Automatic annotation (TrEMBL):
This is YcxB-like C-terminal domain-containing protein. It comes from Brevundimonas alba. InterPro entries: YcxB-like_C. Keywords: Membrane, Transmembrane, Transmembrane helix. The keyword Transmembrane helix applies. The lineage of its organism: Bacteria, Pseudomonadati, Pseudomonadota, Alphaproteobacteria, Caulobacterales. It comes from the Bacteria. Residues 82-133 form the YcxB-like C-terminal domain. The chain crosses the membrane at residues 23-41, 47-68.
Length: 151
């Protein structure tokens, strides 16, 4: 069992690490699609206007993707339990269960652990949730083994 509350700075750090790994591809794809669509549809009547409009629209969409985790942020304490069937979680009055088939990865991220779902949602467990790095590393090993055992 792990009990913790995520801080905003830890959420930003997680997003930055996720962006460096894969999220930047989504942002580039969005920019390319919007710019191409605006130019091909001649938004604004001229290619230059279409590029400017596409640039602003792309920036707004990418900005919304970046802000979404921050807007959904809740400082409530979370409790996670891991077993052979998956993860049980509690956050305030919310609780639920995820099977390991819905988990894409378990990895060390910064000084903590990130359990990422198939839809890019994640449990961000900060390093301070563990007594020390040895306990964190043991937890990471156990959680990863449980996930691998379910495949």
């Amino acid at each position: 069992m792990v009990r913790y509350a995520v801080r905003r700075d830890e959420l930003w750090t997680w997003y930055w690490l996720a962006w460096k790994r894969t999220l930047w591809l989504y942002h580039v794809a969005i920019i390319a699609m919007v710019m191409t669509t605006f130019v091909l549809m001649e938004v604004g009547g001229a290619p230059g206007v279409a590029v400017v409009a596409g640039g602003f629209t792309s920036a707004a969409l990418v900005g919304a993707m970046i802000m979404y985790p921050q807007l959904r942020y809740t400082p409530q304490e979370r409790t996670l339990r891991f077993d052979e069937a998956g993860i049980s979680y509690e956050r305030g009055k919310q609780s639920g269960r995820l099977s390991w088939s819905r988990i894409r990865s378990v990895a060390r991220a910064g000084d903590g652990i990130t359990v990422t779902g198939r839809g890019q949602s994640a449990f961000i467990i900060p390093g301070r949730a563990f007594e020390n790095t040895a306990v964190r590393d043991e937890a990471l090993s156990t959680i990863a083994a449980l996930q691998r055992g379910a495949d």
